[in-house]
C-alpha cells in the first residue's frame, strides 16, 4: 500500500505544468534601476534572468542565465538580454551598478531552494538503498539453528 501511495504521488508530481510547453522556465528578478531608456522613453530596469529545468512540476535545476533590461521593474515577459560585453559597457559608462559581477551568479542556498526536486530524488534513492541494506543485514545476521537429538 505504501508503494502504491508513493507511486501515485510521484505520478502527480510528474504531470505537465499548466501553460508550460517546454521543460525550461525563465524568470526575471529585479536587481535595480538603470540609466538606460527604452525606445518609447520608458526607463529600463536591470534584471537577472534565471532558468529552471522541470520534469513535470518538479524543479530539477536552477541557474543564472544572464543579465537583461526590461520595463515595469522586470515584471514583464519581454526583455532585452545583455551579453557580457554589453553589460561591461553599461557598467563602464555608469548606467548600471558597478558592484555587480560581469557574469551573474546566484547563491548556493537559492540554487538548492529552487532545485528541491533533485534533492528529493537523491534522498529517496539514498533511503531505498539504506532500507535495502538493512533488510539484507537482518536476514544474514543470524545463522540457522539446527537442533540435533540423539537417537
UniProtKB/TrEMBL annotation:
This is Uncharacterized protein. It comes from the Bacteria. The chain crosses the membrane at residues 111-131. The lineage of its organism: Bacteria, Pseudomonadati, Pseudomonadota, Alphaproteobacteria, Rhodobacterales. Keywords: Membrane, Signal, Transmembrane, Transmembrane helix. Residues 1-21 form the signal peptide.
